[in-house]
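Hi, here's the filled form for the chain we discussed.

Project: internal
Contact: R.S.
Residues: 225
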Amino acid sequence: MAAPLTSKRARTDVVTVLKDYIQTSGLDDQGRLPPERELAQTLGLSRGQLRTALNRLEAEDLIWRHVGKGTFVGSRPKLVPDLEAIGDLTSPREIVEARLILEPELARLAAFRATRRHFEQMAECIDNCRQTTDQEIFHTWDSRFHWLIANAAGNELLAVLHDCISARHKAAWGKLRELFLTSERMRFYDQQHQNILDAISERNGKLARARMLEHLQAVQENLFE
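And the returned structure, exactly as it came back:
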């Protein structure tokens, strides 16, 4: 541990005192500084002087603080979510809740940005869904219908979020789909899909949003009834 520095030097430049300590303490990048009380005693500073120095170094991006964990050397880490790890902890209920937030807005945007080709491909998905009672085939075309809406929304970031949610949806849905996706519900969802497409084709964003919300609420109700 570094020897205490004189109070005279501390009064002269508390920021330099703290910088010198970090440079000579042997702490690696992201190393944790001692608790404030201990560090203040080590440096011969008051708690107020130390906090002034800590605030200055944090503003200069030389340290960062995490409430409840301490103060660390270096820049605050940029947190990138581990989607696989998040997915492992995600429940079907959370997936539906995320879809309820995201997909109605995608439908609204698609109403203004979808092309004729998008309309044709969405209609093809609905037709293929109508022609089957096989759960796996229905799910394939149902997923593509929703993907086309996300694509037609014309927002790359939202489309990526949709893909992430859809990937978890596919992984979590297997056994649940066998229980709740009856042939009667397939036909009901066919009509809801058609209603969504009609609203998008009419360039009615408000209605497209409402119909997508209605559809996903029906899925939620059927899944967790």
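Let me know if anything looks off before we file it.
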